[in-house]
Design a protein that fits this description.
Blueprint: E1 4-7, E2 10-13, E3 20-22, E4 27-28, H1 29-47, E5 53-56, E6 66-68, E7 81-84, E8 91-94, H2 99-106, E9 110-114, E10 124-134, H3 140-156, E11 162-165, E12 171-181, H4 182-199, E13 204-205, E14 217-220, E15 230-231, E16 247-248, H5 250-254, H6 269-276
Parallel strand pairs: 13-14
Antiparallel strand pairs: 1-2, 3-4, 5-6, 5-9, 7-8, 9-15, 10-12, 10-14, 11-12, 11-16
Helix pairs in contact: 1-2
Amino acid sequence: MTPMTEVEGRRLALSNLEKVLYPATGFTKGELLHYYATAAEVLLPHLRDRPLSFLRYPDGPDGQRFFVKNVPPGTPEWVVTAEVPRSEGPARQVLVQDLPSLMWAANQVAEFHTPQWRAGAPGEADRLVLDLDPGAPATVVECCEVALWLRERLAADGLAAYAKTSGSKGLHLLAALAPVPSERATEYAKRLAVEAEKAMPELVVHRMTRALRPGKVFVDWSQNAAKKTTAAPYTLRARQEPMVSAPVTWEEVAGCREPEALALRAGDLVPRLREHGDLMAPLLGAERAGVLP
């Protein structure tokens, strides 16, 4: 029988708690749910009001993985949803607004991905994102070098950048924006990527062509498009270990000398929150929003 629990007055069925999702470490679904309950205070503000896309991996990283954007069958009636525009016509997606809906979503076993806009203003970007993706033999070490250059370049335009690990090989840089059409944010991000390639041609590539990427850092500017999404801060990733897309300090970025230096796992969260709090909290306040030039 599926165990039931109550979260802030909502009854939830939480299933297969002993199931091992990350065989390399024995990390179970119960531990995954515990992680999200622990992360809720810092995670929820970054999810709130943003239509959620799920990259589901119910049998672990070696099993089937698939994206879910529409409201899944069986979604409780108390989970908030929002109508979002699509090229094929409007659809509905989940909004994770509170702890009960977060725990329901976590029970789906999924990475959480969000767009750079909120449900109340589709296609109006209030964040800029640059995804730094290393092509082997480049690693996160090279990503950090590029990130430091981009931080200074963004600062020159009045934008404060915040860094997080991708939870995989690279880094994500985010900046709060006074809302602009997603097309404009995309154009600006592409311009920065082109500038970075001109400044560091031996290290950076801005084009998506995979043949150009070995040994370089691909500065992916395309995730600013209205239809694209990015892994949310604090989401677990479908990797061999329970890696987290975790905020990092600029001191950590500047001091990165080896690929494992910024490999952060679920167990690292609590001590990091005690030390730093939410390093991406400034993204949530309008007072930190920059104006695109």
